[in-house]
């Protein structure tokens, strides 16, 4: 999921929310809600799932390309307003959404044909869930990647406990606990993307894909196309310079310790960054950050399927016990931007309460 949101789509245009076509043995899937930054709905999850399954079984489809309509976003996450309304109305859409979204994301991780994800513009929350299982993840200078869930009192799901926890050092912990956005150079540095291409070259990429002469290795064929237009490294990744201090601070035992040390300790010339990071974290849900930290540390030792199971275990408690509903109220419904987090401060966090979200899963995982 994500901190981004869109208005609910009318029932009449549901069939147009996902566009699909096959050209030159490539199945092209386009998220088609550009006005809503291509925020994903349950209907879109179901359409994507059905189309991917059909193409998996079609010998005339060799590969799949995922993209978002418009120039602003690949996908800014889940359509949070619809999930909020479902919970408030006593419906089950919010429960169904997570089960089916995670199944879709997992299916992309295990898809038996190459998947190319064109990550142009915002790739947030649920958008990250769609792309991180792809074989070839392509960013542009317009890309903005993040798992910003803690800003609305939630935790980075859609496989975040797996792909964030496997970023070198504590960079994934930093991204998950703070919810900050990164650009193309950092995405490559963190291993959250594989290639970077100038957005002006995307039409040329499509043209080359349309004219591709296939061999018996579709993945190598696609890599060959990208090698002519894209690069796999970019200079001056900001996180590369910050890596030592991030590894130091975000390896501390808990969130209050991290914030306290960010405020108190000066490391080289990173004091301003440390203070800004501490200030940002003090606006986030204390509970969401604490659960995220523990989730990521557990995720390092879990298989992909177990990570999704852990996130679903947390989901099933979160609407009742977590801060999501209050976060959506404050930032999206009432827009007063004054969420009343529970607990309200980091100092009020109770370790036992945080642990309780994981207790039953510890038994399941044995």
UniProtKB/TrEMBL annotation:
It is an enzyme of class 3 (hydrolase). It comes from the Bacteria. Its EC number is 3.1.2.4. Keywords: Hydrolase. It catalyses: 3-hydroxy-2-methylpropanoyl-CoA + H2O = 3-hydroxy-2-methylpropanoate + CoA + H(+). Residues 26-358 form the Enoyl-CoA hydratase/isomerase domain. Coiled coil: none annotated. One of its GO terms (biological process) is L-valine catabolic process. Pfam families: ECH_2 (PF16113). SUPFAM superfamilies: ClpP/crotonase. One of its GO terms (cellular component) is cytosol. InterPro entries: ClpP/crotonase-like_dom_sf, ECH_dom, HIBYL-CoA-H. GO terms for molecular function: 3-hydroxyisobutyryl-CoA hydrolase activity. PANTHER family: 3-HYDROXYISOBUTYRYL-COA HYDROLASE, MITOCHONDRIAL (PTHR43176:SF3), 3-HYDROXYISOBUTYRYL-COA HYDROLASE-RELATED (PTHR43176). This is 3-hydroxyisobutyryl-CoA hydrolase. It comes from Pseudomonas paralactis.
């Amino acid at each position: 999921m994500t901190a981004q949101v869109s208005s609910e789509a009318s029932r009449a245009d549901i069939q147009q929310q996902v566009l699909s076509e096959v050209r030159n043995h490539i199945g092209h899937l386009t998220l088609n809600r550009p006005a809503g930054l291509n925020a994903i709905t349950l209907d879109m999850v179901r359409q994507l799932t059905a189309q991917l399954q059909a193409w998996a079984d079609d010998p005339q489809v060799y590969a799949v390309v995922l993209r978002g309509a418009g120039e602003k976003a690949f996908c800014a996450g889940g359509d949070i307003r619809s999930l909020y309304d479902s919970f408030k109305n006593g419906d089950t859409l919010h429960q169904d959404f997570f089960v089916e979204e995670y199944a879709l994301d997992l299916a992309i991780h295990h898809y038996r044909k190459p998947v190319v994800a064109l990550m142009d513009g915002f790739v947030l929350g649920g958008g990250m869930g769609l792309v991180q299982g792809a074989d070839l993840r392509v960013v542009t200078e317009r890309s903005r990647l993040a798992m910003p869930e803690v800003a609305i009192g939630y935790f980075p799901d859609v496989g975040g406990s797996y792909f964030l926890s496997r970023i070198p050092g504590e960079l994934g912990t930093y991204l998950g606990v703070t919810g900050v956005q990164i650009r193309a150079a950092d995405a490559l540095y963190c291993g959250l993307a594989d290639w970077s291409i100038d957005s002006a070259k995307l039409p040329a990429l499509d043209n080359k894909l349309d004219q591709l002469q296939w061999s018996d290795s579709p993945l190598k064929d696609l890599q060959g196309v990208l090698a002519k237009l894209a690069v796999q490294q970019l200079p001056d990744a900001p996180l590369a310079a910050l890596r030592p201090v991030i590894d130091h601070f975000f390896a501390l035992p808990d969130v209050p310790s991290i914030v306290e040390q960010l405020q108190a300790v000066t490391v080289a010339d990173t004091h301003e960054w440390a203070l800004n990071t501490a200030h940002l974290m003090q606006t986030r849900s204390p509970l969401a950050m604490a659960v995220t930290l523990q989730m990521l540390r557990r995720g390092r030792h879990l298989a992909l399927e177990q990570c999704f199971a852990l996130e679903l275990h947390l989901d099933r408690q979160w609407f009742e016990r977590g801060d999501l509903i209050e976060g959506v109220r404050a930032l999206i419904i009432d827009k007063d931007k004054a969420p009343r987090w529970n607990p309200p401060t980091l100092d009020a966090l109770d370790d036992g309460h945080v642990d309780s979200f994981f207790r039953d899963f510890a038994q399941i995982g044995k």
